[in-house]
Amino acid sequence: MAEVHHAKEILDGLERLYGNEARPASDFCYEEPLDDLLLTILSQNTNDKLRDIAYMNMRERYKSWADVADADLQELKEVVRIAGMSSTKPKRIQDILSAVKERFGDYSLKNLRGWNQPDVRRYLTSLPGVGPKTSAIVECFDLGLAGFPVDTHITRLSKRFGWAGEKESPDKIQARLENVLPKERFRGGHLNFLEHGRGICSARKPMCGMCTLIEWCKFGREHIKEDND
Fold this sequence. Notes:
The chain has helices at 7-18, 33-43, 48-61, 65-70, 73-79, 89-104, 117-124, 132-142, 152-160, 170-180, 186-198, 218-228. It is 56% helix and 0% strand. The chain contains 12 helices and no strands.
């Protein structure tokens, strides 16, 4: 099992660069957690821009989540088609809405704010298409719980920092990081990782020579050495 070395130094370095830990929770929190859950479903296997367009299309076409739940499935597929996976996501959305209504009597997840984290994760991951990452997004940003979502960017950075094996799954990496990173740093730290992965530490052309975290990154040091050879 990979060990999480220099976590404080890396988190501190990312915070100096991006400052998301200093931002108030209200900058990110949805009043209705269900909104963020369904937005995250739309984000799966697409980029943020297309996700946001699909979500806006859905909210403009339907006045309420009840209307989305009762919508013609083929019509809903067309409304959110731009987000991709149109044969999967609309059905998941309607199935989630049905399950939430059955459990809580309304199209709302606000009652989860009174639950403990293990029960929240158990419930959310029982919903169609909701895995640990999607659950952790809602936990972290909407419920004030200590979830640390691990997406493709954080998976990549974790492997480059030596925090995970090359073939290790995002779910296993998430479980490890949630166990060892300081919980009070999850929300802002997650966002800092995303910014670094989208900018400096990209998948194809990482700018290791510009990275202030190079001291703690074996991948980056080796990458620079290869470029200089």
